[in-house]
Amino acid sequence: MKLYINIISLCLLYMAAGCTPSAKEDGLGHNHDHHHHTEHDHTKHDHTSEHKHTHGPECKNHNHDHNEHEHDSEASHADEIILSSRQAAQFGVETTKIRPGSFHNVIKVSGQIIPAVGSEGIVTAPSAGIVKFMASLNVGSSVRQGQRIAYISGKGLAGGDSNENAAIEYEAAKRELERITPLHADGIVSTSSYNAALRAFESAEAAYSGHRNGSNAIVPINGVITGLSVAEGQYVDAGAPIAKVSGCRNLTLRADLPERDAAYLSEISSARFRTTSSSNVFDLKDLGGKMITMPVSAMGDGTRQGYVPIYFSFNNTDGILSGSYADVYLLMASRNDVISLPKEAIVEQQGSHFAYVRLDEEGYEKRKVTLGLTDGLNVEILDGLHSGDEVVTKGAIAVKLAESSGAVPEGHSHNH
Question: Which of these three, 336, 359, 390, is where a domain ends?
Fold first, then answer.
């Protein structure tokens, strides 16, 4: 135990001797120099400390601002949609810098395409018999004036085929007229006898369809078959309607205006419409259309109670079928300073509407918009866009797909 304490004491003495300067060093005068050196180092230390204190926070703030700048830059472009210029051209993406302009006040109603006056014909049976339609004839088939669409046969019916009886009478009357004509010329037969034979022939000729067995049902006008009144193999009497034909060249648009909007009748100037079977919107101005008459009553042929019918005539150059139902956009006076876009520029997502604004060569932004009226071709923008915005007006679906994919072309960065 005593040996262990002695060893510890020796170690402490050795450490103390190593840390204390010798008396010889103090006698050489190094004590002053060491103090001067210590003050110099202390001053240097204070300078350094002051430098760190003064400039340290600035460096820290500088680094913080730089990081904040990078963060804001990334955040401001986080929702940017990237579509390369090559892909935009490939998918037909087009943009337009929008400016306020004129826009029609519009009332959207329902309506129907009906035949124009004098452009509808009825095909009738020229004789009694069984109806046999021509092959490939259906509702919607195009037909021309003088075309045969059905054959009427009385063969096998009680009383025989009236066409065969008419053919016999026709041939007999024709032979009699041919016999008496030269005799009348020689004065052998009187004029009264000749005239009687001539009337008999003309009457038989009118009753004869040209066919000994059966007769032809002929189309009276060029147009489209819009209805068949009888079925294949059905018996009809002479003069019975077989089919309805509507002329293709002129049609009428009937728009059913609700009575609550009747006060706007005098302001309606034209209309656009889209049939329920087509995605195309037709402008009556492009079809030579015009309002026929101003309605005076809420009741009219083919209209519903509580609606005022408005009629427009137009030239049918696009194969529009009579009888089609339609959405009708009644155009009234125009308003100025209205921002509008083509309907195809608007996309819908979860009940909200959006347009795409081009930011740069390959960058787009999805902008939520509030819609107003539509005239069938364009839609009014109430909020979300401003004059000068470069908006995608064609190919918006391609930008929407790019948004969903999130693909970034090589070399493009979100940090601008």
Answer: 336
